[in-house]
Every structure is written in structure tokens, then in C-alpha cells.
């Protein structure tokens, strides 16, 4: 789905395909606590780098007003140009949509939101990681 703010929403499988077939970049915008305790997408089978950039910081959950500037600097240091497709992922696809919009506004793109995120929606028992999202579809991930 294309939105006015960014290129559109894609499923985790489509993001994985783009990462494996192009110079696309995956950016995880969850918090440091989530990276440490829940896990991270593992791009090592593709020989690719995962970028980590908090959209909001724990515990206040305030949006980082310097998010775009910090990410622009990190991408620049890694030699990632403004025209490289950027795929944003969070827990369930909400924060990553906002991050995709912010980077589109900063002149990057195309920017995509990974729908379902890393953990996906809750099931009837209130657990994530089983209905949709990166983990549920069986894509590689790692946990410290």
C-alpha cells in the first residue's frame, strides 16, 4: 500500500527479498531494551548490516527529535545514498511507519514500512510472534 508520507507497507517476506536482491537497507527503530531482550533481525545470511536507530527512547517513549539527523549521519558513514531503498521495522509496524515518513521528508527514498514488524500482532492469549511479523514468518533472527 502506498501512502502520501512514504512509499508503502510491505510484508516481511517482501522486505527480505528486496534485501537479498538489491542494495536495500533494513533499519530497526525499536528501543535498545527491545533489541536486547526481544531480539534482532539477522541479516548475516545475506552478508548485510542491520541499522539500529531508536525512534523513541525507553522509558519515556519520547520521539527522538534528532532521529532523522542521526540516521542520515549513520547512513552516510556507511556509504548509503539517498536513493537506496530503506525498509523500516519496529515491533508491530506503527513506529516504523512514522520513521519511514520522517526519512522520506528528509529526502530519502523510496522508504518502506515492514507491516507486522518484528513481533507482529497479539494472538488470543496476548502473545506476539505467532500471527504475523518477521519472527512469525520464520525469517532469521537472533537474541543476545
UniProtKB/TrEMBL annotation:
<dbReference type="InterPro" id="IPR036873">
    <property type="entry name" value="Rhodanese-like_dom_sf"/>
</dbReference>
<dbReference type="InterPro" id="IPR001763">
    <property type="entry name" value="Rhodanese-like_dom"/>
</dbReference>
<protein>
    <submittedName>
        <fullName>Thiosulfate sulfurtransferase</fullName>
    </submittedName>
</protein>
<feature type="domain" description="Rhodanese">
    <location>
        <begin position="20"/>
        <end position="130"/>
    </location>
</feature>
<dbReference type="Pfam" id="PF00581">
    <property type="entry name" value="Rhodanese"/>
</dbReference>
<dbReference type="GO" id="GO:0016740">
    <property type="term" value="F:transferase activity"/>
</dbReference>
<keyword id="KW-0808">Transferase</keyword>
